[in-house]
UniProtKB/TrEMBL annotation:
<feature type="transmembrane region" description="Helical">
    <location>
        <begin position="6"/>
        <end position="37"/>
    </location>
</feature>
<dbReference type="InterPro" id="IPR001279">
    <property type="entry name" value="Metallo-B-lactamas"/>
</dbReference>
<dbReference type="InterPro" id="IPR004477">
    <property type="entry name" value="ComEC_N"/>
</dbReference>
<dbReference type="InterPro" id="IPR035681">
    <property type="entry name" value="ComA-like_MBL"/>
</dbReference>
<keyword id="KW-0812">Transmembrane</keyword>
<dbReference type="Pfam" id="PF00753">
    <property type="entry name" value="Lactamase_B"/>
</dbReference>
<dbReference type="Pfam" id="PF03772">
    <property type="entry name" value="Competence"/>
</dbReference>
<keyword id="KW-0472">Membrane</keyword>
<feature type="domain" description="Metallo-beta-lactamase">
    <location>
        <begin position="531"/>
        <end position="717"/>
    </location>
</feature>
<dbReference type="InterPro" id="IPR036866">
    <property type="entry name" value="RibonucZ/Hydroxyglut_hydro"/>
</dbReference>
<feature type="transmembrane region" description="Helical">
    <location>
        <begin position="381"/>
        <end position="404"/>
    </location>
</feature>
<feature type="transmembrane region" description="Helical">
    <location>
        <begin position="282"/>
        <end position="300"/>
    </location>
</feature>
<dbReference type="InterPro" id="IPR052159">
    <property type="entry name" value="Competence_DNA_uptake"/>
</dbReference>
<dbReference type="InterPro" id="IPR004797">
    <property type="entry name" value="Competence_ComEC/Rec2"/>
</dbReference>
<feature type="transmembrane region" description="Helical">
    <location>
        <begin position="353"/>
        <end position="369"/>
    </location>
</feature>
<feature type="transmembrane region" description="Helical">
    <location>
        <begin position="416"/>
        <end position="437"/>
    </location>
</feature>
<feature type="transmembrane region" description="Helical">
    <location>
        <begin position="471"/>
        <end position="491"/>
    </location>
</feature>
Length: 791
């Protein structure tokens, strides 16, 4: 039984991470041949192969269906006339202006008649339906359940393709979204129907809205809403940072732990109730009560994906509990995982899926075969301590792989926070719900006590978050496997001979320095920061960052989202020189956040930065220095003149053993001409294209002087500026330069050494099957003419 289920799980996971989906014809033939083979052989191997084939077929068909819902690449940022149904309560957001955000189902979609037909033509492969995330830039947003027709501007969701960065596009696809956009001219929207017939979601949203308004009177009402209804929209950025630094973010997500605790309450209540009924099977009654409690809690949370996963695991656990003599815990575990994958074939792309099943698997492995249940039962505190220690130790490799890091305080914090939350706070919150309609005064008292306990909890977490910094470790596939094996050995039962020796490789992995280039060479990584620029340069012992990308009025910035995660992934905790080419927001906006999060020894700027307090040196005058056999030089283009804006950009040339890189910021043609006239050496193997490939830069004379083998355009996908311009990419094509774009290829790393400049790694470009854009890094066909945006 375990063999064929395991084979099916492998099939689901293989399709989830494949870069190309198999055609329907090939899937049908494979499944048919596998079925015939199993009928003929009737062996365990043929059954496993059949299960694998069916899983691959099912997951691939699901993938084809999801891809058909994606907005075609050619229609990104196009305008449509659509009929949509609002399926979530509009939540207020703050960006450049206040707006509302909500989810909506596409009912009908057509191109806007005001646009030429050639600019907007829906292909037959596009289903025209799916879930979209919409912004409403006006007052009086639609309500949950409203159906209206409006003009929408839609696009696919893309994330930063950078080492360690959160991939928003991947999360959107795995969460069921087909695109995102906004309602154009909201005041012109035509409502076709008020709220639909009474439904579960309608009733739930009404309850959530009513109780949510009541909870606003409490200091930590936002946390109460998150724990009761999985509504985390009101939790601020600073609170999330505290949760992340203390390893307690899982407490705010209604998932396996919360459902398991409520299920345990139901089991206890059911068995007590069953004991009062003559000849009743207390085991079955307890299981029924536990399932009802878990279903009720999941309903309050809107049956979100994490709660669905937790419910399936809970049902499998209940079956194993009721039939404990006929089914092993591992069979229940594998069954739960298979059922989750059947319900959601894209679940492996969620950190919650990986971490929750890994945590349960670690517990089963750590406590399997132990016969001292009575002793463990009499020492509850010791049991909790051991289980928390096993989970913390077992999840270290996955936490490092997902980029979460670990904190030494997370173990004692969770040891105290989990019992406080599960044994006191959650029961008080549910008591408040029960008493709200019967005895409002008792409800208020329960919630006030819960609010007081939450205040103690959050103050303790805030104190703990500042005690120790998070530990991040650059991890490869090899170190991940090696670390996992060492930890599993440590979790073997007491008495296993010499298992403590597994600590030696584990300590070595933590103390092992991150890979660095050798002396006389450098690694250059153009980071994907959207419409902006950030380049990381590493030598054997030093680190330089050239620009940091943009920030936004909502508080989001690419230093926290991209640059700092990349530094952590590369094992860098200090920046020796930070160069901010000029003060434009797409280059310097995230500088304050970087200076706050990372130790920077020296700052050099092209023009003064108002938002930065650190003392800085200007880069207008020529300046040279050498690190580990690599030469750095600021080129001078303006003599004693003081420039502002794009033309004030620092121009930095990095060279070693006949190989070089040129960083130009946003300089325009006039400065390019002055650089040529100055007689300074401009030739470079790798060029970061001036001004993202704008028409105002990259003159043909400048390109001939530089004569790059590789050119990188750092720009946002489908950006409104049209970067890089088609006329510019044609100039690079004439020179035979190989071009790369962070918009399509993600972050791009080059190795510079005595043998020249070589492409080292790419973090984007068709990694998953839904990223069908024709820019495969392995194709070797990247030419500049393919990279123009089409605007």
């Amino acid at each position: 039984m375990l063999s064929w289920m395991t084979a099916a799980i492998v099939g689901f996971i293989a399709v989830a991470f494949t870069s190309t989906l198999i055609s329907y014809v090939a899937l049908g033939l494979t499944c048919l041949l596998s079925a015939l083979l199993h009928v003929a052989l009737r062996s365990r191997l043929s059954a496993s192969w059949l299960a694998f084939s069916l899983a691959v077929g099912y997951a691939s068909c699901f993938g084809h269906w999801r891809v058909s819902q994606l907005l075609p690449e050619s229609l990104n940022t196009s305008d449509f006339v659509a009929t949509v149904e609002v399926v979530s309560v509009p939540a207020p957001r703050q960006g450049f202006t206040s707006y509302y955000q909500f989810d909506a189902n596409l009912i009908a979609l057509a191109c806007d008649d005001d646009l030429p037909a050639k600019k907007c033509r829906l292909p037959s492969s596009y289903s025209g339906s799916g879930l979209v995330q919409l912004n409403w830039y006006a007052d009086s947003p639609p309500q949950f359940g409203d159906v209206f027709t409006a003009s929408l501007r839609l696009r696919q969701a893309y994330g930063y393709q950078s080492p360690g960065a959160f991939d928003y596009g991947r999360w959107m696809f795995a969460s069921g979204y087909s695109g995102r956009g906004y309602v154009r001219k909201p005041e012109m929207s035509v409502y076709l129907d008020s709220k639909p017939a009474r439904s579960f979601n309608n009733v739930r949203q009404g309850i959530v809205a009513k109780i949510g308004r009541h909870l606003e009177r409490y200091r930590h009402g936002n946390i109460m809403k998150a724990l009761l209804f999985a509504d985390r929209s009101d939790i601020g950025r600073e609170q999330w940072q505290v949760f992340a630094r203390t390893g307690t973010s899982h407490l705010m997500a209604i998932s396996g732990m919360h459902i398991g605790i409520v299920l345990a309450w139901g089991l206890l209540v059911g068995r007590v109730f069953g004991a009062l009924v003559p000849r009743a099977n207390t085991l079955v009654i307890g299981a029924i009560f536990g399932l009802c409690f878990a279903l009720g809690y999941a309903a309050l949370a809107g049956f979100s994906v994490p709660t669905q996963r937790a419910l399936i695991m809970a049902m499998a656990a209940l079956i194993a509990f009721c039939l404990r003599r006929n089914i092993s815990v591992w069979q229940a575990y594998i069954t739960a995982m298979l059922l989750v994958l059947i319900v959601d074939p894209l679940a492996p792309h969620r950190a919650g899926f990986t971490l929750s099943f890994a945590a349960v698997g670690v517990l089963l492995f750590a406590f399997q075969g132990r016969r001292r249940s009575k002793q463990l039962g009499s020492h509850l505190v010791l049991g909790i301590f051991r289980s928390q220690w096993a989970v913390l130790l077992g999840l270290i490799p996955l936490l490092m792989m997902w980029g979460y890091g670990i904190n030494p305080v997370s173990f004692p914090v969770n040891l105290l926070a989990i019992p406080l939350l599960t044994l006191l706070i959650l029961p008080l919150l549910f008591c408040g719900l029960l008493f709200m309609g019967l005895a409002p005064s008792l409800a208020d008292r329960s919630w006030r006590i819960a609010d007081y306990l939450l205040d103690i909890l959050l103050n303790g977490l805030t104190l703990a978050a500042g005690s120790f910094p998070q530990v991040f470790m650059p991890i490869s596939i090899f170190s991940f496997v090696f670390m996992s094996i060492s930890i599993l050995v440590l979790l073997l039962p007491r008495g296993t001979p010499a298992k403590w020796l597994a600590m030696v490789p584990l300590i070595c992995l933590f103390l092992m320095p991150a890979p660095r280039p050798s002396v006389g060479s450098a690694w250059v990584t153009a980071l994907d920061v959207g419409q902006g620029l950030s380049v990381l340069v590493q030598t054997a012992t030093k680190t330089l960052i050239y620009d940091v990308g943009p920030d936004f009025s909502s508080g989001f910035n690419t230093a926290d989202a991209v640059v700092i995660p990349a530094l952590r992934r590369f094992g860098i905790d200090k920046v020796d020189v930070l160069v901010i080419s000029h003060a434009d927001r797409d280059h310097a906006g995230a500088a304050p956040a970087l200076l706050k999060g990372i130790d920077v020894a020296e700052l050099r700027v092209g023009e003064s930065l108002v938002a930065v307090n650190k003392g800085a040196l200007v880069c207008a005058r020529p300046h040279r220095w050498t690190w580990d056999g690599v030469d750095f030089e600021f080129l001078n283009s303006n003599g004693d003149r003081s420039l502002a804006g794009n033309n004030a950009s620092c121009v930095l040339r990095i060279s070693l053993a006949g190989t070089s890189l040129l960083l130009t910021g946003d300089i325009e043609k006039s400065i390019e001409g002055e650089l040529i006239a100055s007689g300074q050496t401009l030739s470079a193997d790798v060029l970061i294209a001036p001004h993202h490939g704008s028409k105002t830069s990259s003159s043909i004379e400048f390109l001939r002087a530089v004569s790059p083998s590789h050119t990188v355009f750092s720009a946002g996908r489908n950006n409104r500026y049209g970067h890089p311009a088609e006329s510019v990419t044609q100039r690079y094509t004439q020179l035979g330069t190989r071009c790369w774009s962070t918009a399509y290829h993600g972050s791009i790393q080059f190795r510079l050494d005595e043998f020249g400049a070589a492409l080292e790694k790419i973090w984007g470009g068709g990694r998953y099957y839904w990223q069908i854009d024709g820019y495969s890094p392995e194709s070797g066909e990247e030419i500049c003419s393919k990279l123009h945006s089409g605007h």
